[in-house]
Each structure stands twice: as structure tokens, then as C-alpha cells.
Write a structure and sequence with these properties.
By secondary structure, the protein is an alpha+beta fold. 27% of the residues lie in helices and 22% in strands. The protein has 5 helices and 8 strands. The strands form 2 sheets. Strands 2-1-8-7-4-3 form a 6-stranded mixed β-sheet. The chain has a two-stranded antiparallel sheet with strand order 5-6. β1 and β2 form a beta hairpin.
Amino acid sequence: MVVFQDHVPVPADLLAASKEFIEKKFGSLKPELLAEDFKFRFPIVELDSKAEFVKAFGGFELDSAFPDADSQTVFYNFRLDPVNPRRVWVDTRFKGTHTGKFGQKGPFFYIKPTGKKVESPPQVLSFTFNENLQVSLMTGGYVVDKNEGNTGGLGGVFGLMHAIGHTLPFPEAKPMRLSYRYRILRLFGKVVDYIKDTFFSSPAEPEKKLK
């Protein structure tokens, strides 16, 4: 039997903590919002310490690079995990114009403003809170529909860099492409279907004439 469950509302304390966490740039502006055993888990990038995350995320200075992003990026559909009552899920769509510079202490300090508009596909984030309402686990960067936006279907920072014309030089940071093996396999399947339909299918029975 299929189990259906309606939208699970988020308790007031967790909802308020989630919104503050987002407003403080995921804790990079207020590290006390992060638990001492904080972990960051995105599809490719994983960080295992609070200090490492604060340094890495804070170094990007996305607010400087995209000064209009705060007024356009939306976080919506906050919901409680039906299995873990300490975990909050939220959807987001980033939108901003690259008219500023990235942080001087970050890896993209050399990139000049491009003036390009960036619109990411919808992505899913989650925040898991401890008993002190500190975030112990943050996950995200999971794209819901890669056909939306102009980031090549990429989420997180990889998508932003691709949209402004500075795609990072490794496969994981580039739009997904079907492998040659997969394309050959698809072609082989079409050839097999053609042969079966052409040479081995039963001839259609002629329609019986009405008497």
C-alpha cells in the first residue's frame, strides 16, 4: 500500500532558527549558529568542520559579487522531515546580477564583474538542528529541475560560475553530458527495435469486412 502524507508544518522554533540561519548567510556571519560538530554535505563538496565552512563560504562574498541577489533570491516551501523531527527542508531559487567582485580572500578574487544575470534552477536544502537549535548538518545543491535557469543545470557555486562564463575546469563543475557509451547504447537499442519491428513483427490482421 502506498503511504501518502500531507505537508508537515515546521515548529515555530525550528522555522525561526532556519530563517535566521539563512539570513546570516548560513552561519558564516554568525558562527554560533553552527554546532561544533557541524558538517556540510553538497553533491560534490563536503566539509567536516565548522571553521572550514565559515572560512570557505565567507570567502566567496556572494553579496558583494551579486549585490541584488538578496532582493531576488527566494527561499520557500519550508517543511519538516517526516522521519527526522529535527530536520527542516526548504526550496530555493538564486537570482542575481554579477555587478560586483568576489571576496579578496576567496578563490575567485581575480574575476571582474561581468554584468551577467544568473538564475539558478530550483534547489533543495536541508538543515538539521541539535537540541540547542544549532545546525549540525547542512545539505544542498540538489537541483530539482535542471532545465530551469541559466546555470546549465548546475547547483550551488558551480552553477553561478558557469552562468557568468567562468566554468570551473573539472567535470563535476560542468553541465552534464551523456557519455559516449550511453549514447552508443541508446543507438543500439533503436537499431534493435527497428530490426524487430521491420523483420520480426507479425503482420497486422486485415480488417474483417462487414457483412
